[in-house]
Amino acid sequence: MDTKLISSGVQYSSLPGNYIRSESERPNLSKVITCDDIPIIDLCCTNRTQLIHRIGEACRVFGFFQVINHGISGESTKNMIEIAREFFKLPMDEKLKYYSDDPTKTMRLSTSFNVKKETVHNWRDYLRLHCHPLDKFVQDWPSSPPQFKDVVSTYCKEVRALGFRLLEAISESLELQGDYIEKMLGDQEQHMAINYYPPCPQPDLTYGLPAHTDPNALTILLQDGEVSGLQVFKDDKWMAVNPHPGAFVINIGDQLQALSNGRYKSVWHRAVVNSGKERVSVASFLCPANCATIIPATQSGSSAIYRNFTYQEYYKKFWSRNLDQEHCLELFKN
């Protein structure tokens, strides 16, 4: 391939060799089933006890759920998806101004996952942004398309507010004070990955992103309303999570699994690609402050499964490994 990015507009008739997974590592798409019973939780539910119970059950049984009536307008989500598409359709020389394969940069366009370390790449380009505090980072964001900063700033603020509502409910579902998790995680960072998956000539041979868990606390995923690609691992099977109109997918991250002392699950998930259509998704990550110490909340009579650790320590370990190695939390067990 003659470019660093796959969002070049070039249509490939076959998959380049450095994207082809070995036979045992392929997605085996014919064995994937649709997940029909994923919880869809209405955040406008007036029965608080019932709402908290449903969120707790979803975190315990699934490790993910979808939310509707979440307070983020349809206009905001539509604008976010549209501006993402516009960005990835920019001319290559314009996009390459933002390219970097240095994961420490707070704003960068890159490809795959960790392109410097990998031997086999993933069929994905992404724009990664730090989003909190906004006034610290927004001036470095792309100035093209012209509305990019305004649209993404608005969306970031709304997603952050939703994230804190969810963290409060998750705290209560663990029989903790509503502000317990927020206090423990400190002044949470907020990152965003705007993902672009072009049509792929041989989707059975590669991934958009291979199986992984999220190293942060909570992930709020906006899916393209038309094209599915998210799959989660449950009951020893890969299941497709198809977009639900107006919903966000909420993923429990590694930090909430540790903080809940293993009661809630940071679920393995992956992104697959298709040959017919491009796909866009926007993942927003709430991350503990680097100095925050993650301490498992034990129930009476139980001991801590995980040792105490700082988020900085965890994140450094996560990025030093391959994405699809064993669960990083295994390295932090007592």
UniProtKB/TrEMBL annotation:
Keyword Metal-binding set for record: yes
Cofactor (UniProt): L-ascorbate
Entry keywords, A to Z: Dioxygenase, Iron, Metal-binding, Oxidoreductase
Pfam families: 2OG-FeII_Oxy (PF03171), DIOX_N (PF14226)
Any coiled-coil regions, as ranges: none
Record domain Fe2OG dioxygenase: where: 187-288
GO molecular function terms attached to this record: dioxygenase activity; metal ion binding
GO biological process terms held by the UniProt record: defense response to oomycetes
Protein family: Belongs to the iron/ascorbate-dependent oxidoreductase family.
Identification of the protein by name: Fe2OG dioxygenase domain-containing protein
